[in-house]
Specification:
The protein is α+β, with helices and mostly antiparallel strands. It folds into three domains: 5-71, no CATH class; 76-125, no CATH class; 130-206, Arc Repressor Mutant, subunit A. The protein contains ten helices and nine strands. It has helices at residues 18-25, 38-54, 73-79, 111-116, 128-139, 148-155, 157-161, 164-172, 187-191, 193-199; strands spanning 5-7, 58-61, 64-66, 92-96, 102-106, 122-125, 146-147, 176-178, 182-185. The strands form three sheets. Strands 1-3-2 form a three-stranded antiparallel beta sheet, covered by helices on one side. It has a three-stranded antiparallel beta sheet with strand order 4-5-6, with no helix packed on it. Strands 7-9-8 form a three-stranded antiparallel beta sheet.
């Protein structure tokens, strides 16, 4: 491939979609019988990683690959929790308040409502616990993973270390690599990343 950047997404079918309901019922509409199994999708994803690597596009995020210097600066803002501003229908934004806390807001997804009142429809100020959860699951999307020194500097060692039981379980399952300063998903962990991320949304002290 001659491109500098590529994105690869594994197929996820919503159970409540037309295709999802057709698959569940064993129907034939929407080419439901031709939808590949989860195992086949995982195999295709792994093959895509190898193919792109052979063409000089290294994986830097679960779904994104780039030549050196061509990673998406726009998307990196999301994963690195940097401020961004969305404009238009169903646009999402994240800015920092004067105190440094994250403020997320979005416009409506309904066109008529947006045209009548194009202001922000949803606003949410994240708590410190919510920000720490985001730091884990957004940072882990990146192949470089989460820098524990940076995380402790921002949230405190006690809060970060409270996730150690979760990290221990994930490391035992070979879903992450864990060193003194870094936590990152393994190739196996990237295949089941959503399941890994869910672990960080629970109360770490209850784990």
């Amino acid at each position: 491939t001659g491109v500098d950047h590529a994105s690869v997404y594994m197929l996820e079918v919503d159970d409540d979609s037309r295709l999802g309901r057709e698959i569940i019922s064993g129907g034939l509409k929407y080419y439901a019988p031709q939808v590949p199994s989860e195992e086949a999708i995982a195999d295709m994803y792994s093959e895509a990683i190898d193919f792109l690597a052979s063409r000089g596009l290294a994986q830097y995020e679960i779904s994104n690959f780039a030549r050196e210097g061509s990673a998406s600066g726009h998307n990196l803002k999301y994963w690195q929790r940097k401020p961004y501003l969305g404009i238009g229908l169903d646009a999402h934004s994240m800015l920092r308040t004067r105190s440094g806390s994250a403020l997320r807001f979005a416009t409506t997804e309904q066109l008529e409502s947006f045209l009548a009142s194009p202001g922000w429809d949803q606003t949410r100020r994240l708590s410190r616990d919510q920000e720490l959860e985001e730091a884990w699951f957004l940072g882990l999307r990146l192949n470089a993973g989460v820098n524990l020194r940076d995380l402790r500097a921002e949230f405190g060692a006690s809060a970060v270390n409270s996730f150690d039981p979760i990290l221990t379980d994930l490391e035992c399952d070979r879903l992450i690599t864990w060193t003194a300063d870094q936590v990152a998903l393994t190739p196996r962990g990237r295949l089941v990343s959503n399941e890994v991320f869910e672990r960080f949304l629970a109360d770490p002290l209850a784990a």
